[in-house]
Amino acid sequence: MRILLVGGTGTIGKKIYWRLQEKHELISAGTKSGDYQFDMTDVGSIKELFKQVGKLDALVVAAGGGPMGPLEQLTEEQFYEGIRNKMMGQINLALIGQKHIQSGGSITLTSGILSEDPIAMGTILSTVNGAVNGFVVGAAGELFRQGIRINVVSPGIVEDSIEAIGTYFPGHHPVAMDKVVNAYVKSIEGVRTGEIIRVF
Amino acid sequence: MRILLVGGTGTIGKKIYWRLQEKHELISAGTKSGDYQFDMTDVGSIKELFKQVGKLDALVVAAGGGPMGPLEQLTEEQFYEGIRNKMMGQINLALIGQKHIQSGGSITLTSGILSEDPIAMGTILSTVNGAVNGFVVGAAGELFRQGIRINVVSPGIVEDSIEAIGTYFPGHHPVAMDKVVNAYVKSIEGVRTGEIIRVF
User: Fold this and answer.
1) Which of B25, B34, B32, B35 is nearest to B56 (CA)?
2) Do the beta carbons of residue B33 and residue B9 sit within 8 Å?
3) With CB atoms 3.0 to 4.6 Å apart as the test, which of A102, A108, B6, B12 could cross-link to B61 if both were Cys?
4) Contact criterion met (CB below 8 Å) for B63 and B88
């Protein structure tokens, strides 16, 4: 398959990259790295990316973040940072991407455990993860008519993030990288659609 | 209790209003009706509302919508309509409201079935409902420290909406209005927090 991977150099993305390149034609895109550079918060930049990349069998997004902070101090502007980035960045990639993915293809987005199993200071990520999950559940039926599947991988804190941010996730059980990568492979090469693939 | 109800003239809101006014001091606010008029898409207007209303025991929001349309045609701007309204409208009411709610009090927001059981043309609502659910799950732990509970009622299509919009919800079983109103009462007068109270 011809697959576009957005965020192929992140903690999870680089593991996806190494797995997928074994058997697929993999194109990577990111803010500063990858085969193509673009800005996922800018619809014009996303359109330009797909124009350059051409027809695809799968789109995988393992990119996007949002700010953390104590609930009492969170501002509307901080929410919109997360909205523009992890939420609408991914949604816009899917909305625009649907026109460039062949029938039989798939879209795989990334949310995360915090919409269901929260941590202190994580409310913005809980919110945008919930939004991405809702989008995928909502979009699947209409994408099905176009012959396109869509799923979202919702990982817990992964092994490779424990050293950097594990202290914010007390008692959260680290998820093996291979298990997370398998969820993306299942979404791309499997048959399900409209699924929140929980890996935690 | 002294309760602020936002959206007390909507399909669900007016039924909440009639139940709550039996035993509570109820203040209503809305875009065009209620004791106070304000704009839930404007943080300045929300701040002014809470300044005028004063200290509260509970905030209930049964307001907010978003556009519907075929997935292939949805634009970023349509998503932002739903984000500013049902998503960030409610989230901003909660963020600002937390400073005006007494310890022991509660916040109750409204999402809806579409984040879990979708319909055609409903992807924006699936997305913003998922976001509101995620926000409530994420915020509960930190609001608990302030002595404030938070829940979200996620209703299915209600009996009173069947005539107007039932055709968009094929096979969805209409929910009795009393059952939906009970969910709000449980959130306000009960003990749970961080719950998605599903009524479908």
Assistant:
1) B25
2) yes
3) B6
4) no
Residues of B in contact with A126 (CB under 8 A): 134-135, 137-139
pLDDT band at residue B104 under the 50/70/90 scheme? very high
Q: How is A106-175 classified by DSSP, letter by letter?
A: EEEEE--GGGTS--TT-HHHHHHHHHHHHHHHHHHHHHHHTT-EEEEEEE-SBGGGHHHHGGGSTTPPPB
CB contact under 8 A, B140 and A129: no
Number of A to B CB contacts under 8 A, please give it.
137
Query: Would the pTM count as exceeding 0.90?
Result: yes
How far is the alpha carbon of A146 from chain B, nearest alpha carbon, in Å? 9
How far away is chain B from the Cα of A68, in angstroms, using its nearest Cα?
11
Question: Least CB-CB distance to A72: which of B80, B98, B114?
Answer: B98
HSE-up of residue B176 (Cα within 13 Å, Cβ side): 3
For residue A158 the two structure tokens come to 């992964």
Q: Within 13 Å and on the Cβ side, how many CA atoms surround A61?
A: 29
Residue in B76, B129, B130 nearest the CB of A88: B76
What's the one-letter identity of residue A82?
G
Q: Residue B52: what pLDDT?
A: 98
| Burial A171-199, CB ≥16 within 10 A → b, else e | ebeebebeebbebbbbbbeeeebbbbbbb
C-beta atoms of A142 and B123 within 8 A: yes
| Domains of chain A: residue spans and CATH | 40-199 (3.40.50.720)
Pairing state between β B149-155 and B195-199: parallel
From A119, A122, A131, residue closest to B130, measured CB to CB = A131
* Complex-level ipTM: 0.98
Cα–Cα distance, B72 to A181 (Å, whole number): 29
